[in-house]
Every structure is written in C-alpha cells, then in structure tokens.
Amino acid sequence: MLKLLVVNPFVNLDFSRLNVNLCFLVSVFSIVNRMRYRLLYFHFGHNWLT
C-alpha cells in the first residue's frame, strides 16, 4: 500500500487531498458541536434563572 502511494503520484495526491478534507470536516464538526453545546447551556441557564 505504501509502495503504491509512493509509485503513483495521482493516488498520493488523492490521498493527501482526502486527508485535508477529513481534517477540515473534523474541525468544522468540532466547532459546530461546541457552538451547539454553548447555545444549549445558555438556553437552559436562562430557563433556570427565570
């Protein structure tokens, strides 16, 4: 598998692009998750205060 990646530049490029996309998706997902938790926390906190 590693030899194939080294030999074939197109497969190597595709693999790196996939890796970048995965990293991007993971970062976006984590940011969205954090925002959602913050909104939920704020919402419940507001409900408890009133």
From TrEMBL:
The chain crosses the membrane at residues 15-32. Keywords: Membrane, Transmembrane, Transmembrane helix. The keyword Transmembrane applies. This is Uncharacterized protein.
